[in-house]
Amino acid sequence: MASVADGFGDYGRNGSLAPSQRAARAVDHVIAWVIAVVLLLMAALAGYALWDANQVLKGTDYSQYEPGLGFADLRKLNPDVVAWITVDNTGIDHPVVQGEDNFEYLDKDAKGNDGASGSILLDSECDPDFEETYEVLYGHHMQAGKMFGDLDKFLDEGFFNANQRAILYLPSETLSLQVCAVIKADAYDGVLFSTPADSTRVPQVIQKLEAEATYLREGSLVGSDRLIALSTCSSEGTNERTVVICKVTGRQQADNA
Predict the structure, then answer these.
(1) Is 29 an annotated catalytic residue?
(2) In the predicted model, is pLDDT for residue 65 greater than 70?
(3) Of 88, 124, 126, 238, which residue has the fewest beta carbons closer than 10 angstroms?
(4) Which domain holds residue 140?
(5) One of 94, 140, 141, 180 is an active-site residue; which one?
């Protein structure tokens, strides 16, 4: 026969919770509190990540220093600024710096301030007047197409075919550029990345492009061309790079030269 006590279930004879049930509820409260704290911390971290990403993207905005007078002002602020590059229908519209080595501006902006987005930089072994036959620009691959992130657009055949104009502004002249090829390459590729380049480099680059380029405008390159390579990191591997090859198609004296 069931005892009278069985009828109380989880409650004692005075109607209060049994000790085991009180302990269980206390554990439940602690678990709920821990979960709430964890969720709050996750929300706070997510908020910080969004803020940090926004600050990084803000660091890539040079809209107050457009080519021309603003470009000159930026050069006065930092004499390491040697040029300004724009590429049609991309977010690439940035000053170009040249440091004492290729590491100086990896985490500094064109004003010389610390910044995770770094700068677009001319290889330290290249000519800042862009008089050499082959020169290389590097830029981080940032989200939202910032810095050189939009070079990936040229890996799309339709975009590559429809877009080929870029401009490089120098202190005393403006270079018109044509996007001629895009290639995926290793960061230690001697043909594309060793500097300074000698007179044999452009034919070597053309030969490599003809064999390995993702896209190449047929007949657009000859050995006497002067080339500028734009390079950025790739998500496909630590040493993988996306490289867009441009040739100089015209030079015009700057208005303020």
Answers:
(1) no
(2) no
(3) 238
(4) 64-253
(5) 140
